[in-house]
Each structure stands twice: as structure tokens, then as C-alpha cells.
Amino acid sequence: MSFAFRQFQSQTTSAHLAQTMALLTLTSAELRQKIDAELANNPALELLEERTCPTCHRPLPPHGHCPVCSRPSSNAADEPIVFISPREDFFAGSGSGTSTEDMPEDNTATATEDLPTYVLRQVAPELDPQDRGLAAYILTHLNEDGLLTTTPLEVARYHHIPLSRVQNIISIIQHADPVGVGSACPEEALLVQLDILAESCEIPPYTREAIEEGLNLLSRHQYQELAHQLKISLTQTKEIAAFISENLNPYPARSHWGDSRDPGNAAMQVFHHPDIIINYLNDQPGNPLMVEIIMPLAGTLRVNPMFRQALRQAEENKMEDWKNDLERASLLVKCLQQRNNTMKRLMQRLVVLQRNFIINGEASLVPLTRAVLSKELEVHESTISRAVAGKAVQLPNKRMIPLSMFFSRNLNIRSVIKEIIERENRPLNDSELVRLLAKQDINIARRTVAKYRAMEGILPAHLRQIPGSSTT
DNA sequence: CTATGGCACGGATT
DNA sequence: AATCCGTGCCATAG
User: Fold this and answer.
1) Separation of alpha carbons A347 and A193, rounded Å
2) Residue A167 CB closer than 7 angstroms to strand C?
3) How many helices (H) and strands (E) does chain A have?
4) pLDDT digits (tens, 9 = 90+) for A336-358
């Protein structure tokens, strides 16, 4: 008896563990799918309409956060507020507000899909069937920046079709999600992005001209020169530069739009919606941080009590199935709680450790490994890995970054290099950078500096001269 | 000759 | 066990 019980116990816990692990890896969008699927074919599971806070189980105002959990705790002002935030609206199919083009976003391959496939799936519906192959062909000729490695003319010649048709297809491709993808050069990509942006917001005058005629000057920060060429003021030129670096991206495949350059790994991961949102309480900088862990559900998930009752009067042959359903349902609910709990503890600690990073930006990132954190939280390191992988975070400045960036070992160094180079007027070579970095207690090899510099998309010293009269 | 980028190796991380 | 990362060595461009 006791043996049987123990066996039962260990079975459930191992299943429990396995499923918690599985749930932990899922992003909020994937979680939504999983739950939807489960709701659809498991009658024992029930979604209560009433919204209660998943953390403290108190009723929730219609569209607000939990009044208890999001209240600043009185004594510790620095303590971040971490809570699970039910945000079904994010996933309500008609998500038209966000930056993404409309996509059947409920598909499984969000994280690991490569760029050509990702784009092709967007453009396919807009194309004639016979043009789809052509689009696929074109998309195989993208470099890692999302730019074309061939020319429309070559494609047309190779396939013996009119140039205009190729151009037409490319134009459609360019308007797909990494906007500007499939352009021939950075200039073209920027112009496409500019066109799209122009529909929804104000653009500084002469931006187009600046891109067309002076991108070289622009990228070398030679504003004086550019202002002269465009016959506009220096202030205007700087405005344009700021606008471009803030809103446009010359290399569509490099994911980040917000800041100047793609930090993190060069892997392009397009995030549709965040899994975690970090903000100041009431949007007031200076207030404690408020961390929302997105739960893609509005109601409360639980085992249907009616089903439990019905089980008693079940027919013999169905009994087995029903029991099974019930088992699965309660397991899911438990595991979901477990997952939320883990995420909460993880973020709680993470936000404390990386507070400066969240507030002040990349340079303040503290080097941190998953192993260290796993020890602190007393969980297995693979748990942290799973929890972190593939998740997106929205920072208070509205930038979207992968959660894994919190564990980046070199991001802070890279941003220091970026700062140094931006501030200096004389182009510094890599060895000089090594020396400057050493002064800030950053000791890395010359070769490594070169690599970081490249990662930041910064040209080598001899190519960013100031007095270079190089025209395009 | 100097500054960089490529390749590949060993150690750390996941 | 697989992957990532920093680095040293070497080839190459200027």
C-alpha cells in the first residue's frame, strides 16, 4: 500500500517536473496556444471568466493590475514589484497595433525559423502562385544583414522574365516584416522604411535626400559636410541623423530598431510581443520597478468541478478516459502555477541584480551567468536556461530585448567601446582602444576589441577618417 | 611595417 | 555533450 502510494507519488512528481520544464520554455504566445489546445480537447479543464490575480487570487479590476500585488510595498522602495499579469488582449488575434505586419502568428515556428522562410510566409499570400518560387529564389540570396547579394537584373536574366516582374516581387518582399529586407543596399532599405514610416508619423525634412546622397557622410558622423551638401543647417542635419538612428535600420536582418545598433548576439530574433514588461510604477522614472510577467489569459484556469462530479456517474468504459483527462487538467494547472512561480522568483532576483542595466542601459549590465543565479534560487541551472531562452522583455524605454541579454557577458564592454569611439574625434585603432579600456579595468586582447567593434558595426579606424574627401 | 580580419583551439557556459 | 567566447597565430591590404 505505502509502496504503491510512493510509486504514485513519484510518478506524479516526475510528470509534474517534466511538464513544468516544458511550460517554462514556452513564450507567452506559445503558452497561449498550448492552453487553447488543452482547453479545446480536455473537458476537465475550465477557464473561469472571472479575472483574479494569478499571484494572490484576489479579484481583478476590468483592465488593471492586481491592486494588492502592484502596490508598492511600504518599506523597501528599491524592491521591484513582480507579478503575473493576465493580458489576453495581447493575443486576441486582431493585434493590429504592433509593429509587425499581419502574420498567422499562431504558428509554432516563431523562434527558430530562418529569415528566408519567415519572409516567404508573409509574402506568399500576396503573390501569384508562379511568383512564389521566384520570391523563394530571391530570398535565398540574402546576406546575414538581410540585403540582396544578387541584382534584380541577374534574377530576371537567369529566369528569363521581365525585370519589372522581379522588381515587383522585391518590392513586396521589402514591405514584409524586417522592413526593407531584400534591398540591394542600406540606402534602399532605409528608403523603404522611410516610406512606410511616413504614413504614420512626422519625418524631418530632407531625410530622404540625406539618405540618398549622403549616407556615407552620415555614417561617419560628418554632419558639417552633409549640412553643406544639402544646403541645410547643422542642427537640421543632426536631427535627421538622430531620427534615422532611432527609427531606421540599414541592415533589416539585424533585429533591433530602438537603439543605434544590434547588441546581443547577431542572431536575428523577431519578437512579436513581450513575455515580460518592465516599467516604472505609474510610468514615473524614479519609482520602483514594476515587472509584469505576461500570462496570455484573462480568466482563471482550473479543473472543472462539474466534471469532477460527473466522473462519479461515468459509464464504465469512459471512466478510464475521464480519469485521465482529469489527471491531465489538474497537472496542467499545477504546473502552470509552478511555472509562474519560477518566473516570478527569477525576475524578482534578476531585476534586483540588473537594476542599473534596466535603468541606465547596456553599459551598466553586470556580468552574470545562469549558473550563479541558479545557485541563488536553488534550482537547477537548466531551469534557468529554459526560463530564459526565447523570451522577450520590454524595458521601460520600450525597447524589446531578449531575456538572455541579461546574461550577456560582454555587452557592457561592447557598449563602452561604442561610447569611446563615438566620443573621440581622432579615429582610434584597436590597440589604442585596448589601452583605453585597460584604464577602466577592462582587460581584453586586441583581437577581441576588433571583434566587438565589428559586432557593433563600427568600421575599422582607417575607414572612419574625418577629413576624407571620399564621395560615393 | 602596421592594422585588421580569418581560422581554429581550449576553456567556460549552458 | 553541445555551444559560445576570448585569444593567438597567420595572411593580407594599405
Assistant:
1) 35
2) no
3) 18, 7
4) 888 889 998 999 899 999 999 99
**Which pLDDT tens digit goes with each residue over A46-69?**
888 766 666 666 666 655 566 666
CB A436 under 7 Å to nucleic chain B: no
Burial class (CB in 10 A: 0-12, 13-18, 19+), A311: middle
Phi/psi zone of residue A221: left (φ > 0), alpha (ψ -120 to 50 degrees), beta? Answer: left
Q: Which of residues 313-332 of A touch strand B (CB under 7 A)?
A: none
The CA-atom distances, in angstroms, between A236 and each of A59, A196, A226, A231 are: 52, 22, 10, 10
Cα-based angle A27, A33, A36 (whole degrees, multiple of 5): 135
pLDDT tens track for A417-437: 988 888 888 889 999 999 999
Q: Which nucleotide is nearest to A454 (CA to C1')?
A: B5
Q: Are A254 and A268 in contact (CB under 8 A)?
A: yes
Q: What single letter denotes the amino acid at residue A284? A: Q
- Helices A163-174 & A152-159 angle (0-180, nearest 10): 130
Whole-number Å distance between alpha carbons of A263 and A402: 10
Are A279 and A390 in a shared domain?
A: yes
What φ, ψ does residue A304 adopt, rounded to 5°? -70, 120
Kindly state whether residue A7 falls inside one of the protein's structural domains: no
Out of A361, A383, A407, pick the residue that ends a domain.
A407
For residue A435, the domain's CATH number is 1.10.10
What residue has cell string 509554432? A108
